[in-house]
Protein backbone atom coordinates (compact mmCIF):
# COMPACT_ATOMS: atom_id res chain seq x y z
CA UNK A 1 0.00 0.00 0.00
CA UNK A 2 1.36 3.41 -1.00
CA UNK A 3 0.68 6.35 1.27
CA UNK A 4 0.11 9.63 -0.57
CA UNK A 5 1.75 12.55 1.26
CA UNK A 6 0.48 16.10 0.96
CA UNK A 7 2.71 19.00 -0.13
CA UNK A 8 3.44 20.13 3.44
CA UNK A 9 4.51 16.63 4.51
CA UNK A 10 6.77 16.27 1.46
CA UNK A 11 8.33 19.69 2.15
CA UNK A 12 8.98 18.75 5.78
CA UNK A 13 10.28 15.24 5.04
CA UNK A 14 12.60 16.29 2.19
CA UNK A 15 13.44 19.84 3.30
CA UNK A 16 17.25 19.46 3.25
CA UNK A 17 17.31 17.89 -0.21
CA UNK A 18 14.86 20.44 -1.64
CA UNK A 19 16.78 23.36 -0.15
CA UNK A 20 20.11 22.08 -1.48
CA UNK A 21 18.75 21.72 -5.02
CA UNK A 22 17.30 25.24 -4.95
CA UNK A 23 20.36 26.74 -3.25
CA UNK A 24 22.63 25.30 -5.98
CA UNK A 25 20.66 26.84 -8.88
CA UNK A 26 23.40 27.62 -11.45
CA UNK A 27 22.25 31.05 -12.69
CA UNK A 28 21.51 32.34 -9.19
CA UNK A 29 24.93 31.12 -8.05
CA UNK A 30 26.58 32.78 -11.04
CA UNK A 31 25.04 36.14 -10.05
CA UNK A 32 25.91 35.65 -6.36
CA UNK A 33 22.34 35.20 -5.06
CA UNK A 34 21.95 33.55 -1.67
CA UNK A 35 18.81 31.67 -0.64
CA UNK A 36 18.27 32.80 2.96
CA UNK A 37 14.85 31.29 3.78
CA UNK A 38 12.74 28.50 2.36
CA UNK A 39 9.30 27.53 3.60
CA UNK A 40 6.37 25.71 2.07
CA UNK A 41 5.35 28.05 -0.75
CA UNK A 42 7.72 30.82 0.34
CA UNK A 43 11.33 31.88 -0.15
CA UNK A 44 13.71 34.74 0.52
CA UNK A 45 17.04 35.52 -1.13
CA UNK A 46 19.55 38.34 -1.18
CA UNK A 47 22.11 39.71 -3.55
CA UNK A 48 24.97 42.08 -2.79
CA UNK A 49 25.17 44.26 -5.87
CA UNK A 50 28.34 45.44 -7.57
CA UNK A 51 29.28 47.73 -10.46
CA UNK A 52 28.82 44.94 -13.06
CA UNK A 53 25.07 45.01 -12.26
CA UNK A 54 24.52 48.67 -13.11
CA UNK A 55 22.76 50.18 -16.09
CA UNK A 56 23.99 53.27 -17.95
CA UNK A 57 22.29 55.51 -15.35
CA UNK A 58 24.35 54.07 -12.48
CA UNK A 59 21.45 52.18 -10.87
CA UNK A 60 20.81 48.45 -10.65
CA UNK A 61 19.80 47.00 -14.01
CA UNK A 62 16.19 45.83 -14.24
CA UNK A 63 17.37 42.40 -15.42
CA UNK A 64 19.18 41.92 -12.10
CA UNK A 65 16.07 42.88 -10.13
CA UNK A 66 13.94 40.58 -12.28
CA UNK A 67 16.44 37.72 -11.89
CA UNK A 68 16.35 37.94 -8.10
CA UNK A 69 12.54 38.04 -8.10
CA UNK A 70 12.45 35.09 -10.50
CA UNK A 71 14.85 33.11 -8.29
CA UNK A 72 12.65 33.37 -5.18
CA UNK A 73 9.59 32.69 -7.34
CA UNK A 74 11.26 29.47 -8.53
CA UNK A 75 12.36 28.51 -5.02
CA UNK A 76 8.93 29.11 -3.48
CA UNK A 77 7.05 27.28 -6.23
CA UNK A 78 9.43 24.30 -6.14
CA UNK A 79 9.55 24.16 -2.33
CA UNK A 80 7.35 21.05 -2.26
CA UNK A 81 9.85 18.98 -4.26
CA UNK A 82 7.47 18.93 -7.23
CA UNK A 83 8.74 20.44 -10.47
CA UNK A 84 7.05 23.78 -11.15
CA UNK A 85 7.74 25.89 -14.24
CA UNK A 86 6.91 29.54 -14.76
CA UNK A 87 3.99 30.36 -17.01
CA UNK A 88 3.66 34.12 -16.61
CA UNK A 89 5.13 37.02 -14.67
CA UNK A 90 4.21 40.67 -14.35
CA UNK A 91 6.81 43.00 -12.85
CA UNK A 92 6.36 46.56 -11.67
CA UNK A 93 9.54 48.57 -11.15
CA UNK A 94 8.80 51.16 -8.47
CA UNK A 95 12.17 52.62 -7.53
CA UNK A 96 15.86 52.16 -8.29
CA UNK A 97 18.38 49.91 -6.62
CA UNK A 98 21.55 51.70 -5.62
CA UNK A 99 25.17 50.84 -6.41
CA UNK A 100 26.69 48.59 -3.75
CA UNK A 101 23.38 47.94 -2.00
CA UNK A 102 21.86 44.67 -0.90
CA UNK A 103 18.75 43.50 -2.73
CA UNK A 104 16.33 41.24 -0.88
CA UNK A 105 13.45 39.38 -2.48
CA UNK A 106 10.55 37.61 -0.79
CA UNK A 107 8.08 35.27 -2.48
CA UNK A 108 4.78 34.21 -0.95
CA UNK A 109 2.32 31.71 -2.30
CA UNK A 110 -1.14 33.19 -2.76
CA UNK A 111 -3.02 30.09 -3.95
CA UNK A 112 -2.28 26.71 -5.46
CA UNK A 113 -4.10 23.69 -6.78
CA UNK A 114 -2.80 20.43 -8.24
CA UNK A 115 -1.76 22.08 -11.54
CA UNK A 116 -1.27 25.85 -11.01
CA UNK A 117 0.02 28.16 -8.28
CA UNK A 118 0.15 31.96 -7.91
CA UNK A 119 2.81 34.03 -6.12
CA UNK A 120 3.48 37.58 -4.95
CA UNK A 121 7.09 38.71 -4.88
CA UNK A 122 8.56 41.89 -3.41
CA UNK A 123 12.09 43.14 -4.03
CA UNK A 124 13.65 45.64 -1.65
CA UNK A 125 16.88 47.60 -1.64
CA UNK A 126 18.02 48.85 1.75
CA UNK A 127 14.47 48.35 3.14
CA UNK A 128 12.83 50.29 0.29
CA UNK A 129 10.38 48.49 -1.99
CA UNK A 130 11.78 48.75 -5.52
CA UNK A 131 9.79 46.13 -7.45
CA UNK A 132 6.83 43.78 -7.21
CA UNK A 133 6.07 40.70 -9.26
CA UNK A 134 2.96 38.60 -9.67
CA UNK A 135 3.67 35.18 -11.11
CA UNK A 136 2.07 31.84 -11.95
CA UNK A 137 3.53 28.36 -12.36
CA UNK A 138 2.42 25.12 -13.90
CA UNK A 139 2.97 22.28 -11.41
CA UNK A 140 4.14 19.18 -13.26
CA UNK A 141 3.37 15.71 -11.94
CA UNK A 142 7.10 14.84 -11.54
CA UNK A 143 9.12 15.37 -8.38
CA UNK A 144 12.80 16.33 -8.45
CA UNK A 145 13.46 14.65 -5.11
CA UNK A 146 13.50 10.94 -4.31
CA UNK A 147 10.35 9.89 -2.52
CA UNK A 148 11.43 6.46 -1.34
CA UNK A 149 12.20 7.59 2.23
Automatic annotation (TrEMBL):
Gene3D superfamilies: Hotdog Thioesterase. Pfam families: 4HBT (PF03061). CDD domains: PaaI_thioesterase. InterPro entries: Acyl-CoA_thioesterase_PaaI (IPR052723), HotDog_dom_sf (IPR029069), PAAI_dom (IPR003736), Thioestr_dom (IPR006683). Residues 57-128 form the Thioesterase domain. The keyword Hydrolase applies. It comes from Mesobacillus zeae. SUPFAM superfamilies: Thioesterase/thiol ester dehydrase-isomerase. This is Hotdog fold thioesterase. GO terms for molecular function: acyl-CoA hydrolase activity. Keywords: Hydrolase.
Amino acid sequence: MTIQLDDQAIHDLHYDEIKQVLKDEPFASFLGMKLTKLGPGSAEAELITDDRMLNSHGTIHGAIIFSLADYVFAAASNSYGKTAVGVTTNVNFISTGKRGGILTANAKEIKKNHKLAWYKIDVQSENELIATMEAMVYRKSQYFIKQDK
